[in-house]
Amino acid sequence: MESNWENLDAFVGERPLRRRLLLAPSRSVGRRLLAQCARRGVLVVGVEAHSLFTLALELCGGEKLRFLTRLQTEEEVAWLLSRTEDPLLARPAFRTPGAAGAVWRLLEELELHCCEPVPTEDQPLLRSLLSFGATLRKELAERGLLTRPALYRLALEKLEWGEIGAPAQQYARLSTVELTPLEEQLWQRLTGGAAEVIPVPERDVVPLAEGLKGRCRFVRCRGRENELRWLFADLARRGEPLDRSVVAVTGPDYGLSLWREGLRLGVPVAVDGGIPLRHSALFGLLEGLSDWRESGYEAERFLPLLSCAAGRSAGRRSATLWCGPRRRTTPRS
Questions:
Q1: Which of 119, 172, 229, 315 is 20 to 30 A away from residue 82, measured at CA?
Q2: What average pLDDT does range 94-107 have in this prediction?
């Protein structure tokens, strides 16, 4: 890999009025590279990042079809295997989830690599599997369900018949993108063979421990409650700004416990990924509205909701906004 960014910068920054598409191993990888270009001062306008899968989904987005994940496809395979009359596939060995996954992986690889093997007389199992694959494709097509190979074939067909327009005017592909023959057909049809191949630039890798040196401490106490209390007490002792302090926890349950402890102390805590709806302010508000409706819209039940709304509109910061019965707002100045 090249250590410079010239090729990617040139593709991203030149001709900002042209629609451009960058093919990456995954959409998130492509977007991260575009974000790094923007941080380095490159004008990122009119550029989209896609994997071939997300691109095919976007091209076929107008169809009233549903894409099946791998797990959903394996469930469909298992369902058909349980109803097959083929004696070779009706054996108990093919009635397990693992067998359904293995059968689908074989059929998917054959489709993605455009392989059409011709079974001989001494390959009866292969003949049965190919026949089963044809039955599976027919069954899913009748129900409007798409597997990954079927999605690529549909996108390829739409491009060949001119039913969809080109998503961009200029294309580039990262050198780390590996395509199967079916995916290569779709990419070549889409780009006309004029896509540029861009080497993936190296990033300045800083070891995590080195980057956090002097800024991170590991804490372990006897029991979760003691750890949480120590964390808040330590932040108070050191006078650390709360909006610049981050606590890495072991899981969502620990994050909820941290949020509850902050709620008890009146310290605002934001949890990455959010908290369960039942513990949120929205749930309390919805519960209060539900109780108000069930009471026949009594004014006494509505007054706490009005006071809660007034507190929020006045811009007061609260540790919590429980508005339902048996709850009260605890504002902080």
A1: 119
A2: 90
Cβ burial of 121 (10 Å; 0-12, 13-18, 19+) is: exposed
Based on the domain organization, do 70 and 137 belong to the same domain?
Answer: yes
Type of residue at 242: L
268 and 219, same domain (yes or no): yes
118 and 263, same domain (yes or no): no
- Answer yes or no: are the C-beta atoms of 81 and 100 closer than 8 Å: yes
**Domain identity same for 82 and 226:** no
CA pair distance 219, 228, nearest whole angstrom: 10
Give the 3-state DSSP-derived string for 138-193, with helices as H, strands as E and coil as C: HHHHHCCEECHHHHHHHHHHHHHCCCCCCCCCEEEEECCCCCCHHHHHHHHHHHCC
Report pTM: 0.60
In order of 107, 123, 131, 183, 228, the CA distances from 117 in angstroms are 11, 11, 12, 19, 62
pLDDT digits (tens, 9 = 90+) for 78-93: 999 999 989 899 888 8
- Mean pLDDT on 321-330: 37
Q: Which domain holds residue 299?
A: 279-332
How many Cα atoms sit within 13 Å of 230 on the Cβ side? 11
